[in-house]
## 1
Amino acid sequence: MKNRDEILAGAGVNTRLAHAGNDPADYHGFVNPPVVHASTVLFPNAATMEKRAQKYTYGTRGTPTTDALCAAIDELEGSAGTILVPSGLAAVTVPFLAFLSAGDHALIVDSVYHPTRHFCDTMLKRLGVSVEYYDPAIGAGIEALIRPNTRLVHTEAPGSNTFEMQDIPAIAAAAHKHGAVVSMDNTWATPLYFRPLDFGVDISIHAATKYPAGHSDVLFGTVSANAAHWEQLHETQITLGTCASPDDAYQVLRGLRTMGVRLERHQESALELARWLEGVDDVSRVLHPALPSFPGHALWKRDFKGASGIFSIVLKGRAPERYKAKAHAFLDALGIFGLGYSWGGFECLAVHVGLGDRRVAKGPEEGPVLRLQIGLEDVKDIKADIERGLAAARAV
Ligand SMILES: Cc1ncc(COP(=O)(O)O)c(C=O)c1O
């Protein structure tokens, strides 16, 4: 029989998701890996202990459970190694701490996830790192912002809440010319629809809380590095001790098995609704990279294999002082959508987006922006719920 790894390497994505990570033959044939709860690992004798000459040495440094998930993620990302951390936010902050030192300069996309900005403006600043926010549409033009001490260029595409696309290969090429590390928060696309390392990114970041876990019950992050950056990332993880729990690692691996089929459904429903909303009178704009009308659509089409289930709409606003009341009327009329942060779970969620933190990429100003996470519910029911929201907003 052909080697299992060889067969899987050439298989379709859902086949790989069903089998990536652990090999059942390594654990008595059980399909899933064991959930190993561990701090202590015993050594057979003092010499082995002194040299740490065995595969597992301490709970923070990996277990069969975390190894199974890391192997699955490496397979999907094409990475040299992956660390597992306790939240998506930690998946951003740990690599930033790995690659930035006092006196360094970091370029951060202005459409970044807000808590990433908060980390930069507070902790990085306190540690002596200077941070500059750049326009997501900058492309190769980022070279003009690179200084001799620029050490990190952080990307996130599509951007949080407003979904601006970025020319990742052009940005990575410019950054690498000057020796900067390129990181990307790729949570929206997952490695199924975009593989950052194939496009020149060094560090691929995921809030696995979203689609990989998929059920709104786990907080988790993964960070995957190419060979040149793996050692430093791994060393930082060990130094900080930011390890993830075995139960959560297990749940994320479990979630990966169905992520492909879930994403297909999220994608299909979200696109159907986004297309419908484009023609609705109360809506001024739909911010979804897979719509030809969206400014970043050409980049999405060039580089991405699909779209996930979250996008935003801009309502026609009338006067700015009524934006908030309109948005609240929309949200309060919803019965299927929950009002909640996060996304990537099985259920619809909506939130009124605040863009007050933006410095360069200001975002739409003609009306309130509402972010919609489209869940796995039936589209006709989701549509009826959005219609309820639109009718309530219209009355304001
Ligand atoms: C783009 C992006 N990155 C990172 C995170 C952080 O994930 P977590 O909630 O697991 O900290 C989020 C959460 O909403 C996100 O939207």
## 2
Amino acid sequence: MSQNSSTASKRISTYLMMIVLIVLALSIVSLLLSVNAFIAGNQMLAGFLLVIGFIAMSLSIYVLLQSRKRAASMKIEAPKVMTTIECKKCNFKSVREFQRGDFVFKDLDPCQKCNEKMLITAIYKEVKEKEKTYRF
Ligand SMILES: [Zn+2]
């Protein structure tokens, strides 16, 4: 499930990157055309192309920076690894965040209820399906 959505978002970002690169290329073309028009003496056209070129360039750079920021925030939101601890005697169960050195069937502190040693029974990734919003 989560793998599917991550490949989908990757596909969207490559698609977005292509659009950004096309817009960036067009903005460079329009800046070059603006220089051409200026040399040819057509200052109206030169100014027009200059403005379009700058708007397109700043837009594409803005989108590029935004998508980078989003990629960085995605990394931070990595799924948490959880450890399930159980007492075999009284079936007391607790879940906490994974700690370094945890492994399945590791003995831990005595149970809160019956003082029997508790055991790690599962280590798993907590998957949260968060709302995904794409802003373009
Ligand atoms: Zn117990």
